[in-house]
Structures are given as C-alpha cells and as structure tokens.
Amino acid sequence: MKPSRAFLLPLWASALGFAMGEAGAGRWLSEALDPAVTLRSCLGEGAALLVCFSIVGVLLGRLAPSRPTLGTALALGLWALVWGPDAARAGRLPDLAGVLPAILVFLGALRWPRLACGLGMLGGLAAPALRTRGFSDYAPLAQHAPAGSDVLLITVDATRADAGLLDGFGGAGWWTFDQAISPAPWTLPAMYSLFNGAPVATHQGGLPVDGGYTRPAFQRSFVADFAAAGWRTMAFVSNPHLRADLGFALGFTDWTHDDDARAPLVLLSSLERRVSAARGWANAMQHSRDDRVVDAAVRALSAPHAEGERRFVWVHLLGVHEYARDPRVLEAGDSGTTAAAALRSAYAQSVRAATERVDRLISAAGPEASVVITSDHGEELGERGVFGHGHALQDTELRVPLAMRMGDGGGRVEGQVGTVGLSALFTAMAQGKAALPADALRSDTVWVGGVRRDAAAFAVRHADGRYTEAPGVDVAPGVAAPIDATSRDALRALGYAE
Length: 498
Ligand SMILES: [Zn+2]
What we know:
Elements: H1 3-29, H2 35-63, H3 70-89, H4 96-111, H5 113-136, E1 151-156, E2 174-181, H6 187-196, H7 200-203, E3 208-209, E4 212-213, H8 222-228, E5 232-237, E6 254-257, H9 266-279, H10 289-302, E7 311-317, H11 327-332, H12 336-365, E8 370-374, E9 380-381, E10 387-388, H13 395-398, E11 399-400, E12 402-405, E13 411-418, H14 422-430, H15 437-441, E14 445-451, E15 454-462, E16 467-470, H16 485-494
Parallel strand pairs: 1-7, 1-8, 2-13, 5-6, 5-7
Antiparallel strand pairs: 2-11, 2-12, 3-4, 8-12, 9-10, 14-15, 15-16
Helix pairs in contact: 1-2, 1-3, 1-5, 3-4, 4-5, 8-14, 10-12
Bound molecules: zinc ion.
C-alpha cells in the first residue's frame, strides 16, 4: 500500500464510523424536536472530520513517509481524546468500549494496514453505540415493586398551572390543587423557599445585588430531616442554579447534577456551543438533558431496596424552561406574531414531553411510593407582550401545578396553597407523622417576592387572587454574593435563557 493511503484510509474509516456512531447516539439521546437537525448535524460532523483528517493524513504522509502507522495512531488518539475526559468527568473508569477497539486498530495496523481500516470503522461505530447503552437501558417498569414507602418529588421547571402538565391526574389516590402559588417567579429564590420552608423575605436568597444575586448559605433543608431519619436521599437535577456549593445538596446522600454529562454530538456540540455563544443563540442539542436525568433517576428508583431502606428522590426537569430553543422558534426569529405562535406551540410541546417523563418517573417509583409534582414557577407567554419569568409578581409567573399522592386520601383542593409549605409536609413525613396535604398547605395569604431586577418587590397573594403590596426587606449585610464565574460558565454552556 502507498504510504499516503496507509495514512488516509484508517483516518477516513474512523471519521465515517465516528459520525455514524454519533448519529446513532443522537437518535437515542436527543429529544426528537426535529430529527432533521440531528441528521444534518451528524452528516456535517462526518464531513468536517473527513476534511480535517484528509489534510492531516496528507501532511503526515509527506512529513513521515516511513511511519504509516501514524494515521492509525491519530485515530486512536482522537477516540481517547473524545471519550477519555468525558468518562473521567462522569467519575467512571476510562471508556473501555472506546479504548479497546482503538488498541486493536493500532496493533492491527502495524501488521495488516488494510484490516486496520475495517477495524477502525467498526471501532468508531462500536464505541459510541456501546457507550450510549448505559444511558438508555432501564429496568422494565411494570413488574417493579419497591420494598419501602419511598417519596418522590418532581419539580418541572417553568411550568404554568394552566399548561396542562397534570391533565389526566386527579384519579384515585391523588390530591390535585387548583391554586398553588410559588413563593418566587424564578428558580433560585423559589427553590431556596421549597427546601428551606421560608418565604423569600425570610431567607433573602436570589435577590438582585450588584451584577448578581444573593446566595445565603442554607439554614435548613427538609432533606436533612429525611437523612437524619436514616433515609437514602437522592437528587437528579440539571438546572445550573441548583448547585451543590449553594447548599442545594444539603442532606442528600446521592447528588447527581448533569452539568458534566456530554451532549450526544461531542465535537459538533462543543463547536455549536461556541458559535451559539458568539451569536447569542441557544444550543438546540441540549434537549436530551432531561432524558439523561430521567434515565438516571429511573435506574435509581427501579433498583432493589436494601433491607429496610427508604428513599427520598428529587428530580428536577429543565426541558420546559428551554422551549425557546426549539429549532422552529429559532427559524421564526423575531417575526412578531409568527415568533409568538412558535413560542407558544414549542412551550405546549415541551410540557407534553415533561408529562411523559413524569409518567415514567411515577411508574418507576411504583404504586406504593408517595409522589409530589410541582413547578418552581410559571411562565409569561406573551400576555403582556413578553415571554419568560422572573419579571413580576403575578399569576402567570407564580401559579404552578401541584398534585400529590400519599396515603389513601385524594381529591380536589380548591383553596389557595403555597408550595413553600411543602417543606413542612416533607419534614412531617420524614418524622413519620401523618399529615393531610390539603390542611398542611392551605393558606389565606402567601408571601411572594424575588423579582430578578427589583430586590424591593414583595407582595402578598390572597386566596381570592388579589395581590397587595408588601414592604420590602433590608437585605442582610454579608449574604450578598455576586454571580460567580463557575456559575456563569455553567449557565452559558447550557445556553440558559436569561
Ligand atoms: Zn426555573
């Protein structure tokens, strides 16, 4: 074989195999918002790899004609570069499925250059395919029967009460709530409240300060009550605001944050992330994030219990929050009513996807588990000419879905409840007290606050739906901490809207 072909063929083969493998991984991992986007991406990545490899192969053929195995070594190096750091970040062993075929190719190339080409292609195909299986396989759900009475909390980001997330709920054993009010219109202050059991005015987290938001250390969390009572406590989240170093991991024995998980198209997604950041776009490929979070949670929920083990499992779904990154919305651009219609349609579709994920999680938890489903806040869908949340204290941003299944009771609760009360409910459960959810949560007045750009905006929502202004609070000195570089990078990597 000519030296230049000995360089090029293994590289071409591995580029092709790599792209095909990524296409497979993309199909399995991506939410099918637009399969054409995934296919185009894979073809683009394959073509880009072929061009780059060809240039490198020709150069190497000129520079070192006596060492034709260098081409194969490059292919091996590429696999190691792509899969190795990823495996390390995930805290697992180096990806043997990727490394072993690469070693085979390298050894084979020393002796039989042509055979090595075939092996290169197979290896490129096999590595991501084998690797992906770890994300996709989960135990069959129907036969699942947990030993203990587990508790599952599902928070679906940015989901309005009237978005239809819980349509179809309300059957036997379920409490549904007509008027559930979140303590704040965006994630950080709202989730502080959910775990602390205190309104924003008290914990003062997530209030705007110079260039950032206040992030006081957690004073308490109901999760610590579960842990103290000997429960296993597990979190599966991906929202960049829900970080362990901000205290959200307090009390959890198992903390899984998806920041480090890879997107299906490794090379292309990192390129696209840069292009998106430079052009102010959002990355369309991260939609698989919820799938990975749910897969991991389903595996944990379906695993057999140790003797006497009880589990509290929290899953936070981010997909609805990312509806503005639907490719159809990006295509519609800023074209007025078309863009608004595309946004509303993408929102509805992402809520339907969330409902399916909620169903999967509930099935995995089994019929004995107690389940609470809610959202951290609502979403403004153009009612006042804007989309998004965190802007104002009003029902579109504060009224959230809420349903729970625990014990034998059930029914529709019409009065106002504050989701801030869930913390006390969970603490009671951890301590083995039986509390009627409706009674524990009903409240004539709910304190709300935490508007992104107005630290002084606080209000009380009354049971009849009125909001009355409430005095602002003096932010305690020492609790203010501007948004830091780590968080900013994490938000940017996700293409986090706002
Ligand atoms: Zn949120």
